[in-house]
Amino acid sequence: MTDPNGLPSPDSPLPTGGYGRAGRGRGAAYDSVPLTGSFDVTEAERFRRAEMEKTRGRLVIASLAFAVLFVLLAGRLAVVTVIDPTEPKRKEHPVAELVAAAPRTTTYTTIGQRAPITDRWGQEIAISLPTVSVFADPRQILDPVDIVHKLKQVLPRLDEQQTIQRLSATKMQFVYLERQITPKEKVEIARLNLPGIEFQQTQERHYPMGRMAAQVLGAVDIDENGVGGVEMAFDRRLRTDQTPLRLSLDVRVQEVVREELLGAMNEFGAIGAAGIVMDVNTGELLAVVSLPDYDANAYRTATEDEKKNRAIKERYEPGSTFKLQTASMALDSGLVHIWDEFDATNPIHISHFTIDDFEGKHRWLYLPEVLAYSSNLGAAHIAMAMGTERQRAWLKTMGMFGKTGVELPEAGMPIVKPAAKWKEIATMTVAFGHGISVTPLHVVRGTAAIANGGVLMRPTILAIPPGEHPEGERVMQQSTSDIMRKLMRLVVTDGFGKAAEVAGYYPGGKTGTAEKVVAHGGYNKHANVAAFMSVFPMNAPRYAVYMMLDEPHGNKSTAGYATAGWVAAPAAGRVIQRIGPMLELMPDTADKAAIDRMLAIPLEPGRPPGAPARTPNGIVPAAETRPPATHTAASVAAR
Fold it and tell me: DSSP readout, 310-360?
């Protein structure tokens, strides 16, 4: 029997095929007997099953599509968050957008930053480091008081009232709140989530060596514009060329000069000091020191006195260091010879002035003695023998009437009397360094020309590339320079510069002590400028060393004297001893005897037979003969 659907009725007998009860044996369960047979599937069932298959296919395709999309999304997230993370894009002020768009580099220097400044060996002495500034767009700020109050908690230095006023000016679109903030301050401000407050990447100038050459380097303002020294002189170069600017300075030499000057300044209670080391053959400045100084990172808080560059800008009467110019002028003219004598017997009274010698000999002095004993009287008579016009022409040629030519903007202009006022008294006093004011660099430049063979070099603060040699201007004969080197050496071996002697380096030089000019004319008898101008080694001149103390005071070690031979010459000697090895000049003691002979010149040279001479009896014609002088020079205390 079948039911209406064609399936067997429950009441129908079991099929005869298969396993019946008899076939399974006694006790076999009915449920364990499989049913066999054939069934017919209706058209409706087949349609239903086909639809289910279609649905299953669509689900599989959809699942595959979702799986692909998920993989793509996961990959993109990995790229933007791990492989190549990007900052979230935000609305920024146009200025900030320009900064943000600037290319980045792998070092601290980025496009638009100032180039580093280094010494001659590549030691960085000025660099720019990235920093952050915070600014505001007042148009987006509804409550300036609340905003500023919250910012004040992070930036205590913020001027609250002034900032509120600036943010209340709704017409403004960009207001700096703080130009340089720390990373911690940036994070704390960002956490406040203040509307209209944004950040901008900027840079800050740093001077890693602090006080080293502070006045030479100068500084930059808040916008990184140079405002002094090298930073100002080479502002455009530092902005447009990212390669380091290499200076002629040697930080090792600079520090030695500073240490010795500072020690002497403190020992003798001076109010200031200056020191210079220059290559006499190239004009390169290896050290330029001015004291007191300041930390170059604190330019804005430094005093005007600390900012002064006493070595390059300030003018002083050079004192007896100028006697080297007077002697060179006389010898180079051919009108004066080393065996000539000059009257140093009595003071010179002219107008209301009196010219006299410090610890004078009160006799006629040979030219070498005039330098060794630093005779003002002898120098005055030499100048009068040469004449005013020749003296002015010489000093102008030696660069004493104009700036030195060094690249720094602070370079000082000498104070020189006009020709109409350059009377006889001026001719005499200028001969020993009074009545004219120049910078220490003028003295160094002029002395370098005397020692290097007679070529005036332009001082430079930039390192000269290897293999290049700048050309100078010949200002005197080689023969004059040869004699002057011997005379400068004589000042150290037998004159007032004995304290500057350094074994194996054969320095030569000249002391100079000048009374300071008072505000309304005249001189302060109790305020001196004491300087020692030296060059070493005199057998083959390489470096000039200048050491000056402003208003030093004598003490027990100097027997109360505050003159250059006591207070400045010893410091120069210590500098020479320390920097010689640094500059690859080792002391030469093995050849001392030969070098001494080469540099030897007597204090009282004999007149060659038949040569003219200036003597106490007047000018001796060349045809006459006169035996060498027999009187000897007495030893003197160092001046």
Answer: TTTT--B--GGGGHHHHHHHHHHHTS--TT-EEEESS-EEETTEEE--TT-
> Which amino acid would we find at residue 65?
A
Alpha carbons 312 and 287: distance in angstroms, whole number: 12
Residue by residue, DSSP assigns 267-320 as HTT-SEEEEEEEETTT-BEEEEEEES---GGGGGGS-HHHH--TTTT--B--GG
200 and 327, same domain (yes or no): no
pLDDT, one tens digit per residue, over 13-47 is 444 444 343 443 444 443 444 444 444 557 767 77
pLDDT at site 133: 85
End-to-end CA distance of the chain: 150
Say whether both 469 and 331 belong to one domain. Answer: yes
Q: Which positions are catalytic? A: 320
DSSP per residue, 498-560:
GGG--TTT--EEEEEEEEEEPTTSSEEEEEEEEEEEEEE-TTS--EEEEEEEES----GGGTT
Percent of the chain with pLDDT over 90: 61
* pLDDT given at position 95: 35
pTM: 0.77
The CATH number of whichever domain residue 136 belongs to comes to 3.90.1310.10
Would you give the DSSP letter of residue 463?
A: P
Residues 6+ apart with CB under 8 A from 619: 612, 613
Per the structure, the count of domains in the chain is 2
Q: What pLDDT, in 10s, does the model give residues 219-252? A: 999 888 999 999 999 999 999 999 999 999 999 9
Nearest to 498 by CA among 558, 566, 598: 566
Round the CA-based radius of gyration of the chain to a whole number and report it.
45
Least Cα distance to 364 among 348, 341, 347 occurs for: 341
Q: Does residue 489 surpass a pLDDT of 90?
A: yes
Give residues with Cβ within 8 angstroms of 93, minimum separation 6. 135, 137, 173, 174, 198, 200
Residue 630 counted as domain residue: no
Give the up-direction half-sphere exposure of residue 346: CA atoms within 13 A in the CB hemisphere. Answer: 3
User: Which domain CATH number covers 330?
Assistant: 3.40.710.10
Q: Is residue 162 part of a domain?
A: yes
Q: Which residue has the higher pLDDT, 159 or 1?
A: 159
- Whether 420 is covered by a domain: the verdict is yes
Residue type, 130: P
Asked if 317 contacts 589 with a C-beta cutoff of 8 angstroms, the reply is no
Do 328 and 445 lie in one domain? The reply is yes
CA angle at 459 for the pair 458 and 460, rounded to the nearest 5°: 110
Residue 617 has pLDDT above 70, yes or no: yes
Q: How confident is the model at residue 639 (pLDDT cuts 50, 70, 90)?
A: very low
Residue 196 lies in a domain: yes
Element (H, E) at 197: strand 197-206
Rounded Cα distance between 301 and 296, Å, is: 10
